[in-house]
Amino acid sequence: MSKNTIAWLIAISFVASQLWLSAAAGEGETTPASPATDPYLQCIWNLAADPQFSDIAAKFPIRDVRTISFSMLADETRPNPKERKEIGDWFDRREECVKAGEALHQAQWPPELYQLAQEGSSGFKSIGVDLYNGKITFGEANKQIEQFGNSIKERMIPIIKQYQAEIAAQKAAVQQQPANEYAQEQTTAAQAQAARLQRAQMFLNYVQAQQQQLRNQFTPRPSYTTNCFTAGSNTNCTTH
Fold first, then answer.
1. Structural domain for 120, as ranges
2. How many domains does the chain have?
3. What is the pTM of this model?
4. Is the dihedral of CA 191, 196, 201, 202 positive or negative?
């Protein structure tokens, strides 16, 4: 996974997704994973496409924190009654998305990273509450989201790098001796460590799978133009 993938995964937020999974992207190669979409992400994407939230979508990153533009950061308005209702409804629906992905995240993510996800979710919700109550402007909310997301990523990157170093060391150890000898030398502690690293590898594979999903969603389909002309009884067409 190359370093230029960091930006897109800032998106998986509001649980782990949009606020901190970007820290995992770009921190090394992983084994390709199944492209199955995280139910949390799919729920968030469906929610963002709901026209019910069209007003706040222009002011608040309800789908992807990469969409925080300069104008959104400079927005000095506070929510009007209609926008407050949209914010409240969106956060209520978002909780359903969180619950949809909770079992997967708990089962496949290392405990430290799952805990960061929980902190990310709570912190994002807290910013939303202040915005809903008119304590901060849309611009202030967006700035806080960016700052909070960066703080989560700063805590996550060392964890990811440590796991990757341990996984690399484990693979090197396996390659240096026959598999049957390596298995025989596995103590209870070593087996627990192997299980821990397997879970970390599942998380990294998960990140890569979600990256591919986002690429598939946002890669524009090619468009073609066909021009035809007729000369006598012959018709010629050119597609480009």
1. 3-239
2. 1
3. 0.68
4. positive
